[in-house]
Fold this protein.
Amino acid sequence: MNEINTLAEYLRELPGIGPRQAKRLAYYLVRRTDDLAIKLSDAIRKARTSTVICPDCQRLHTKTNATLCDICNSERDNTILVLPTDTDLDHVEKTDTYNGYYFVLGGTVPILEKEPEKKVRIRKLISLLENEKHNKLSEIILAFNANPEGDNTLQYLKDKLTPICDKRNIFISTLARGLSTGSELEYSDKNTLDNALKYRIHDII
C-alpha cells in the first residue's frame, strides 16, 4: 500500500467519510503547494494536548486550572440536558435556548444492542445524578435525534434512570417533536430547537 492509500485509509475513519471521499481528500492534501497538511497535523496535535474531558458533563473543553469546564462551574438552572455528542451540546449552547447543565452520553444505543453500557456513558450519568452538587436537580431532559436509534436510546435511559429519578422526585422529559422524524439536532434551527425545548414531553412512552 502506497502512502496516499495509507492516508486515505486513515481519513476513512472520520465520520461521514467514504472511500471515494477519503481518496479525494488524500490527493487534495498531497497536491496542495502550501503547508496546509503541516498546519492541519499541527492543529490536531495541539487540540489533542490542550483539551480534556470534564469529569461532570463529559464534554471536551480547553484545559484550565479548574477541574470542571466553564459550564459546570457556572450557576445554571437545576436541569440536565442529556445529548449524544459534543457537537450537539455546542449547537444547543450557541442558540441560547437552554440555561441548565449538560451531559454528553457519547453516542446512542443501537437497536438490539446486547451491551448498551459499553456504547454510552450510563454509569457516569448515574454517578452524576447521585452527586451532591445536583441534590436540587428538578429535571433531566433527554435530547436525541427523532429516529429509531434515538427512540431506542430514550427508552433505555428511561428504564435506567426512572428508579433514581422517582426516588428524588426528578422529572424525566424528552424534546417535543418540533424536531421532525429523521432530523438531527446538529442541523436544527434556533426556532425549531426553542420550541422543542419549550414544549418538551414529561411522559415518555
